[in-house]
Design goal:
6 strands, Rossmann fold, about 5% strand, 4-stranded parallel β-sheet, alpha/beta
């Protein structure tokens, strides 16, 4: 999918082996209980998250941390789900983590989102950093099934965050042939969200697909991102209809990431950015595989790129953009009566 850097990758694995050996394996990824003190959000909630790299809190960290990486952003910065969890007095940890053999091992965390995940397409039908992480990421339908197998149900003291579909859009191909693939993914996601609600999910946040056509990947396409923009819109329109069909649209909190990102890009300087969607904070020449998963301060294009750039690599938000999105989500939740 991206240019390979075998030397650096070998170093990652070598260091990871030594770290795993010294520590006796990677564990302890637990989601902490809610503290007694009232958090910034005004109420304590346990956070459960499903989705892809936009929400992944560290599935691949046991390997990626060997070079200072761990999440798909400008490491060591947090992704939006971690910020929202802190807002409600929780600490979100990965539900599964990878080991040196490219095997996922269950942890005690509730962050089920995994980089590379689609809504329902098996991992072995895509080519997402396979030489680094293998073909192991769980699609969202499997993430939810894994949660229910381990925990039985959701409850009213939880806030369930669901953000998926961007990988389905990215891999669908060109319109019009791509339309059925995207529509099927969106309808499947609506059904998965219905499953969450039916199994006790009282506070469920559903984030739509951002305008993938405005990412650096989109801008670099021959059509300037037009196809990806249309597919993003198609996914979101289908998801809205699907939520109505399943009968849960009034039972979930929808967050419009598509419109939000358009607005941030249009006013990037007013939001504290020096570079909008035209560049990436992680230097492609220094960052292994040109992925933010393996990005850290030594690979930034400038020392403060995590705050001044919108995109970490050609798809994923920087620390600052994640922080702004978390604030936007928190505002939407406050309007629904959850917090202030």
């Amino acid at each position: 999918m991206r240019g390979r850097n075998d030397t650096v990758r070998a170093a990652i694995f070598a260091v990871a082996i030594s770290l795993l050996t010294a520590c006796g394996g990677h564990g302890g990824d637990s989601s902490s209980g809610s503290p007694a003190a009232t958090p910034a959000g005004g109420i304590n909630l346990q956070i459960v998250s499903f989705g892809d790299s936009l929400s992944d809190v560290g599935t691949y960290a046991p390997l990626a941390s060997a070079v200072g990486g761990g999440r798909f952003t400008t490491n060591p910065g947090q992704v939006w789900t971690q910020n929202v969890a802190q807002y409600y007095g929780d600490t979100l940890k990965a539900a599964y983590t990878i080991d040196i053999t490219h095997k996922l091992t269950a942890q005690s965390g509730l962050g089920y989102a995994e980089g590379g995940a689609t809504v329902a397409t098996p991992a072995n039908q895509s080519d997402f950093l396979t030489s680094v992480i293998g073909n192991i990421e769980m699609p969202v339908n499997q993430q939810v099934s894994s949660y229910l197998s381990a925990h039985g149900s959701f409850n009213s003291n939880q806030l369930v965050l669901v953000w998926a579909g961007a990988n389905d859009v990215l891999r669908a191909g060109q319109l019009p042939a791509a339309a059925p693939t995207v529509q099927t993914a969106a309808n499947t996601l609506a059904q998965v969200i219905g499953q969450i609600v039916q199994n006790g999910g009282a506070h469920v946040v559903v984030v739509n697909v951002p305008n993938v056509g405005l990412s650096p990947t989109g801008l670099a396409a021959s059509d300037g991102g037009a196809n990806l923009t249309q597919l993003s819109q198609l996914f979101n329109d289908t998801l809205n209809t699907g939520l109505q069909t399943v009968g849960v649209q009034s039972k979930v909190i929808q967050v419009d990431a598509y419109t939000w990102l358009n607005g941030i890009i249009a006013n990037f300087q007013a939001n504290g950015f020096a570079v909008s969607n035209t560049g990436q904070a992680c230097d492609p020449k220094k960052t292994p595989d040109n992925t933010s998963l393996l990005c850290s301060p030594p690979t930034y294009v400038t020392s403060n790129a995590d705050q001044t750039y919108m995109f970490a690599d050609d798809l994923h938000p920087t620390t600052h953009l994640h922080s702004l999105f978390a604030q936007f989500v928190e505002q939407q939740l406050a309007k629904s009566g959850l917090g202030h």
